[in-house]
Amino acid sequence: MTLKIHIDDSAAPYEQVRAQISEQARAGVLPVGYRLPTVRGLAESLGLAANTVAKAYRALEADGVIETRGRNGTFVAAAGSAAEREASSAAQAYAEKVRRLGLSEGDAVAAVRDALRAAYGEG
User: End-to-end CA distance of the chain, in Å?
Assistant: First the structure.
């Protein structure tokens, strides 16, 4: 695992750690099950305070990117599956809401298409 912290960057150091680990996990550079360094070990190697790395690890765990297994360590989680579960849950909630609102299936799908175009910057 290779991380680079840029002190002159506008992003806080913990956010740089969080973003880089998240990106490397998503890209497969850090495979599912990869054991991350300890908070103290990573902090020392990056020249950061342990609390900075701990904050990044907490954010990554909340996002489902990593999981802590007590004394066994911290590992890259199946982030894709967590994201898929969250997307599925959001889709289910949306489907229930538009049905309660009385929208047709076609209108509900059109609303989703419009939202996705806006979110992904298309057309």
Answer: 38
